[in-house]
Specification:
mainly alpha; Receptor-associated Protein; 3-stranded antiparallel β-sheet; 16 helices; 3 strands; 5% strand; elongated
Amino acid sequence: MPEYRYTARNELGSKIEGVIDATTETEAAATLSAGGLFPLEISPVLKQTTTGKIRRVNGQQLAAFYSQLADLLHSGVPLLRSLKILHDQTSNTNLKFVLDNIYRRVEAGETLAEAMTRYQIVFGEMGVQMIRAGSEGGFLEESLTHVAEYTETQDDLKSRIIGASVYPALLAFFLVVVVSAILVFIVPNFQLLFEDLRKRGELPQITEWLLFISAQTKYFLIGFVPILVVGSIWFRFWSRTENGRQLIDRFKLQIPIVGKVYEGFAVARFCRVLGTLLKNGVPIVKSLDISGDATGNRILSDAIQRAAENISGGSRLAGPLAESGCFPRSIVEMISVAEESNTLDSVLVDISASLEKRNWRSLDLAVRFIEPLMLMLLGGIVLFLVLALMMPIFNMSNM
């Protein structure tokens, strides 16, 4: 049975706090009243999952939940029964726990959006706001369908980005590990072999460079590990500060080639979220707040926030976005025309789809450019090692 933490006063007016077992908050209040207490505040005690905290849910599972809930409601199944069905059939323990608490809250009289608000780490602010708009506007099933489509699209986008970056990352890791192993374990074995050539001054300069680099690599690796650990801890805390996030997000936008792709995906997310929210009846100022956070970049988010402030004063959206300098001129022009024709919600979604296609082409080109670049770098390093080790051997054989 769920537990509820309460604050109440007794007949003498003293404040009492404690925990009580009850099915709903109403039952908890009735039990306290029957015991001569006057409830002031009652809130559920959220029992932790097996991992100790509520975690995010996989995008595909979350999209399936939204889609199935929309189908059940569209078929006429009551909300409580739909939540019970989805709770019983899910295999994700974290989602099962959350759905159980949402079911009990809805049963106690809360709306679905109110119950989901307590678990924004799972559902996200955008999903909660769209469901709230759907509940208030009478189109909850449609809102759930839109949230399911958006969640699935974003999860697919994330998977594709990770997939596209795996090969270059593995190639870079392989390059660092192999070269380090050669410098630390193989090259030093040639030190004694080349000693006579060095004494006679006949050792090629390229070999001298290789032996020097090999000797320094050991000390570098010994010092690199603690520096890496300390640096990682410092960077983790610094990146959570306001200045840290600002600088990191600005740097992401300025990276050659990759920065433009990153910015394109961030703008595409903004357009898709804003268009979806507006289509589901969420006010534009609130939609801008949510869609600004959806960019995942503080620089873009601040620009969108300034646009929201100007809109509150009666301005249009296109003007403030153009002044920020963070959005392509073509996108701003399309938004301007859409505002004049009152088709902003649908145009934004179309812009997002077009941007994502363009960004994928750019990402594919970037990956194709990085792959041969990494291979050329690997070939150059191998050529350097071969020349540095073989030239002295050729000299010795000629002698």
